[in-house]
Amino acid sequence: MSCIEHIGFYDNIIRFPEHKHISCEIMYLHKGNINLICENKKYELKDGMLYIIPSGLNHKISIIDPTCYKRTLVFLNPWLYSKEYYSDFIYNILIGITINEPIIAKDDFECHEYLNIIKKETESTDLLSEDIIISVVTQLLAKILRNTKFLSNNIKKPNKLVSDVQRYLQENYEQQISISDIADKYFVSKFYLSHIFKEQTGMSPRQFLTFTRLSKAYNLLHDPDFSVSDIAEKCGFTSTSYMIKKFGEQYNISPNKFRKQLFSNSKKYAK
Asked: 4-25 pLDDT, tens per residue?
């Protein structure tokens, strides 16, 4: 399972409602102008700029001119990435422990070259592809953070139990998971797990699991080969109707309407 969940697709929805992802979002703007609204603050991005939005941060984007717009969008799973390469500083940024705003940078280090390598390796079946992806992603993140001078000695040590449980849920979201079983797996009480998990993440383990499943569903809706019922099953939802309900609560749009807008607009604006 790769730490890169998606790269390169274009949503084609000009003004998407405020939403959030379980993955960290990295976007590079090749050309065009966009407005990024994040936690009620507005940011303007132009050609040659990029941003990192930590996991779970509310945001929305409006495209100024859809006829002149090209971007590369990457969804990076912080827990799968940190399983292969771990740095307290980078990990904290990706999951939003030390920051509740986007990191915005100008590309003065040939960002697109890193993205091209990552995209190429995600399409490869080579046994070393994931190793190259981890290496290049690490260099890209380090370049962005150094470029923005977003360096600090005030690094909080993440709770290992919470990080381990998050990673477990990321790797097993397709299955029917009991929070009691997870607590037993890590030799803690269900009540302690729920308390420490919510204290660090702001949500319960069950809410985090639902959030994870919805993020996976959001990504799969870009693939026309999967029906909504297929996606519900692949993402571990007990029923299609339950996924539709939760998707509407999370993204303020139904899966079918989202997909209809996605493919309708792609005919008009995709290059």
From this structure: 988 886 555 556 677 888 899 9
Residue where a domain stops, chosen among 123, 147, 171: 147
The Cα 99–Cα 129 span in angstroms is 30
* pLDDT, tens digit (0-9, with 9 covering 90-100), for 204-256: 999 999 999 998 998 888 888 899 999 999 999 999 999 999 999 988 889 99
Domain identity same for 187 and 102: no
Residues 111, 39 share a domain: yes
Q: How many Å apart are CA 1 and CA 210, to the nearest integer? A: 19
SS3 of residue 41 by DSSP: strand
Establish if 230 belongs to a structural domain. yes
Closest CA to 64 of 105, 19, 34: 34
142 and 169 both lie in a single domain: no
What pLDDT sits at residue 268?
43
How long a stretch of residues is the chain? Answer: 271
pTM: 0.84
At 24, give phi and psi (nearest 5°). Answer: -80, 135
Q: Rounded to a whole number, what is the largest CA-CA distance in the chain?
A: 55
Q: Clarify whether residues 126 and 184 are in a common domain.
A: no
Asked whether 162 and 95 are in contact (CB, 8 A), the reply is: no
Amino acid at 260: K
- Alpha carbons 12 and 252: distance in angstroms, whole number: 17
